[in-house]
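Progress report, Aim 2. The chain analyzed during this reporting quarter is listed below.
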Amino acid sequence: MKVSIIMPAHNAAKTIKESIDSVLSQTFTDWDLLVINDSSIDETEQIVSEYTRKDSRIRLLYTDKSVGKPFYPRNIGIKAAEGRFIAFLDSDDVWLATKLEKQIPLFDDEKVAIVFSYYEKFATNEAETKKNRVIKSPASVSYNSALYGNPIGNLTGVYDSKKIGKVFYEDAGHEDYILWLTILKKGFIAKNTNTVEARYRVAEKSVSSNKGKAASWTWNIYRKTLGFNIIKSAFCYSMYMLKGVLKYLK
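Predicted structure tokens for the chain:
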């Protein structure tokens, strides 16, 4: 029942200790952590190496080149993963201690291939603390319901490789959304713990904060990744935009 946790790291010296410590604090202890050092030039490698000497569950891997996108180191981690369950945590985010303990039992349902949770946004800069908020999602997600926007925070998602095999990230915008859609399209569902189990750090000029770019990526998913015709793409995109407006007005 091991969980392999994939953590890409690029110049993450300022935050990675907190991220690794949140894994070490898990009440569910059957895990291994694969940190993939992506051409860091700060003290990331030294920090992770200290952890590997103290805990054999932590492994340090390396990219053979830097492509400047997280899909590449994540895929290296997935390929090397030995656990039945594959989970993801970036090197500036953190998990709550009960995350895996609450998630893994939900896979007992044969229909469930993904388990996720709510998460809380937080900012390092005190001036940005007004942005702190809990991001909630539906109790369960199917392929059809996921077409109108990504309901699964990447730092909360876990998938069952025994049920679906290993699924890798694509080199595309919203690569996590594509990953979840690929799995759900196989006929499985995603189940929510309906609890806050992770904290997402809002960084200045983060890619995820660029709403225009995110909208463009979503349109490309409908047209190119999923191959929808223009009518179906327009309908899904309209629903995606409507959900975004309603979420903003809350």
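The longest strand covers residues 189-202. Residues 3-209 form a domain with the Spore Coat Polysaccharide Biosynthesis Protein SpsA; Chain A fold (CATH 3.90.550.10). These observations will guide the mutagenesis work planned for the next reporting period.
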